Amino acid sequence: MMRISLLATLAMLNAFLVYGQAEAPRAGAVETYPLENLRPGMQATAWTVFTGSQAEEVPIEIIGVWKNAWGPRQHIILGKMGGKAAITNVAGGMSGSPVYIDGKLVGAVSLRLSVFSPDAICGITPIDQMLEINEFDESQPPAAKSPDKANTTAGLTLPDGFASKVFTAGSDGWSALAGAQLTPIETPLSFSGFTEDTLNTFTPLLRQMGLNPVRGGATLGASAASTSAGTASAVGTAASGTATSGGGGAAMNSARPVDGWQKALPPGSPVAGVLVSGDMSMSGLGTVTHNDGKRVLAFGHSFFNLGPVSMPMAQGDVLMVLASQFQPNKIANATDVVGVLKQDRHSGIMGVLGESAEMVPVTVKVRSFTEANQKRSEKDLNFQVFVHQKWTPVLMMLTLFNSINGLNEFMDEATYRFEGSIEFENNQKIQLSTIRPQQDVPMPAHLVLAGWWADKFNQLFQNPIALPRVRNVSMTVDLLPQRRVAAIENAWIDKSEVSPGDTVNVKVFLRPYRGERIQHNFTMRIPPQMPPGEHRVLFSDAETLNRQQLLVRSANKHLGLDQTVSLLNQERSNAKLYVSWVQAAPSLFAEDKVLPRLPNSVLNVMNPALAPTRSTVNLSQTIEEAQAIPFDYMIDGSLALRLKVN
Question: Is the dihedral angle over the CA atoms 138, 142, 144, 150 positive or is it negative?
Fold first, then answer.
């Protein structure tokens, strides 16, 4: 009996020694394996997570070193992955998986060869190329992946430049994946709390930048993120990909590192860069290559290649790896924020544990109304947005579109009434309002609205003087039934000759879409300083008056943040009918200021005086707003009546 027991024990011990899993790598200093010592046929071990947060070993056979494969002196190590990776193939999210030989760090799994190959052939970024990132300064790389680099369809005129980029984005980004060439492993961009329609709308734009949008989630509660794969209940809840209003659906409600960040992100574990967090979240997933106890290297290729960044860095929890020869991916949740990404470079990303990134807090109130103008429902959303001059505007567009799109009351012929404010750290504030009905353009009204909102942030973040420091953003969106657009049809004034200071009666007639003509009566006072002569009274929409500000912005390429804020606050709302005086006297625009009714002699003196320091724009007439009449319609068109002042 004792002999049998001893033999069984020896057999179990032998099995453990042969097949048992080696100890997972830990944070701290590590010896590197020289690239010149690599030989074909050598056996290496990679570490990556297939489920939960515990890394597993993956055998790799070294094929050889591909010289200059990724640029001048940018060598790539080719390897054939075995174990579970032979079944899943080289999956999105494996980027950064550390590779060791004899306990020495070789590099990071970062690329794959072809898409339909039966072999899991990977490219490994040498660790020396990744360690260079620690020494980089604040220089900007020339080829960043940002939304402004996406291709758009030529010849299609669409409103609002940002929305048109999304709507016309094609599938050119997939062409690089079609051939048998070395390509970076796609970064799975995980979306939680986003509707299917939102993903379908924005996926072509993201694909063009080499990103792979996938349905994801964020674990409930901070403690769930640091537990292993055994927390089935928390993982199961997060897998639904939904977010509860009020912050219950996403753990990443703050950009501050959680307690215990000192022990976070060992080599081989999931790591995520966070673009949006809160009631909806958006994050890019990869794998940690090296952690020296403070600084973390990951991915083995760029995230967006933005150079210096300040983006929340979070842990991850992998639900599964979807096996596929075409598009294998890790399906995962971003969990707790533990630091900040500081560098996004060609050969990887670098983050620092324990530090915080600045985010823009956003609140959205979405309300729906009946035809009797009674409020039917209300939803409040809270989230934070990554700060970057190219990405913040697009993220504002995407989150606003998604906030509207998730309503049960959503309908094709709806009209969206919008009020928004942007507050800055220097106590400046922008107040904007608009109304957007569905119109005969090839994109939905809520995408036009979201693109309009994104364009405001683009103007702020693209000013050449200073990066805006946004304290918070708040929006209210009302969903109104019917297509509410009304054209200015006619107008009438009860007198054709007046004196300064007189009051006249005015009627304006509007023609709504599929409705009875609207008549609006009001009185208007003739300005006491109005000079004698023939003048025009202009009845117009906001676009007619906003052309002046648009002309100023397009003519002046050096507007600072203060001037940009001032011009945005001067924009008129398209839910108002404007009554203005038009005089045949020149006006001069200098940055965000207007000097009306200037004599030609004064204009000739001021133009040269302002030219050295300011860009100026001259108009042959002066338009001064007299009244703004609000409507629950988008006002369209303009007309003018002549009036003689004695």
Answer: positive
Question: Does 360-480 match 29-131 at the fold level?
Answer: no
Are 559 and 553 in contact by the 8 Å Cβ rule? The answer is yes
Architecture of domain 29-131: Beta Barrel (2.40)
| Residue 532 phi, psi dihedral angles, 5° rounding | -65, 155
Q: Where are the domains of the chain?
A: 29-131, 180-359, 360-480, 485-645
What end-to-end distance do the CA atoms of the chain give, in Å? 125
Query: Cα–Cα distance between 423 and 212 in angstroms, integer?
Result: 33
What is the spatial order of strands in the sheet that 587-590 belongs to?
593-595, 587-590, 616-619
What is the structure's pLDDT at 465? 85
CATH level 3 topology of 360-480? Dna Ligase; domain 1 (3.30.1490)
- The C-alpha atoms of residue 490 and residue 584 are separated, in whole angstroms, by 23
Pairing of strands 485-493, 634-636: parallel
pTM: 0.82
How far apart are alpha carbons 560 and 550 in whole angstroms? 15
- DSSP three-state, residue 26: coil
Report the distance separating Cα 273 and Cα 285, nearest Å: 7
Left (φ > 0), alpha (ψ -120 to 50) or beta: where does 382 sit?
beta
pLDDT digits (tens, 9 = 90+) for 123-140: 999 999 999 998 775 666
Task: Please identify which residue in the block is written with the tokens 């409020």.
Answer: 375
Question: How far, CA to CA in Å, does 364 sit from each of 279, 280, 401, 460, 608?
Answer: 10, 12, 11, 20, 47
For the beta carbon of residue 21, count every other beta carbon within 10 angstroms.
10
Q: Name the residue among 624, 608, 626, 627 with its Cα closest to residue 616.
A: 608
Report how far residue 309's alpha carbon sits from residue 65's, in angstroms, rounded to the nearest whole number. Answer: 31
Q: pLDDT tens across 285-312, in order?
A: 999 999 999 999 999 999 999 999 999 9
